[in-house]
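Field reference: sequence -> structure
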Amino acid sequence: MNSVCLIGNLTRDPELRYSTGASQTAICRFTIAVNDGYGEKQRTNFIPIVVFNKQAENCDRYLAKGRRVAVMGRIQTGSYEKDGRTVYTTEVIANNVEFLSSGQQGQGQMQGQGFGQSAGFGQQGGFSQPAPAPTEQPGEIDVPGGFTSLQDDDIPF
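Structure field:
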């Protein structure tokens, strides 16, 4: 199975192009920075992402450098010749891109992690605002509307 799920921030604005030929398929490319590990062992991986069709146009329209996204897709590898040398490539072909931060962030600062709209569904309009910071007291859990809190004796295992 070839399946990838990543969350990261765009390292630069997306680039949209259209394929040549009769189909004129939209192709959007961008790179996300994904953190791995904690503390002194933390490192950042830069993952190239490719998105096609209407989803590519939505990514170009609504995403910008610094925006936080979740990407679901598959890994694709390839190679090409350049100056007599073989260059190997690895990229993620996205099936779905979720916008995780609102468009009102300043200077690339990422605030909040509320889920926004999906690039794959062709929705129009703005993004949802990040959820407010929880105000619970230590030991309390803030349960979202429509859900009930379970006690330890309510869990069937």
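Note: The longest strand covers residues 68-82.
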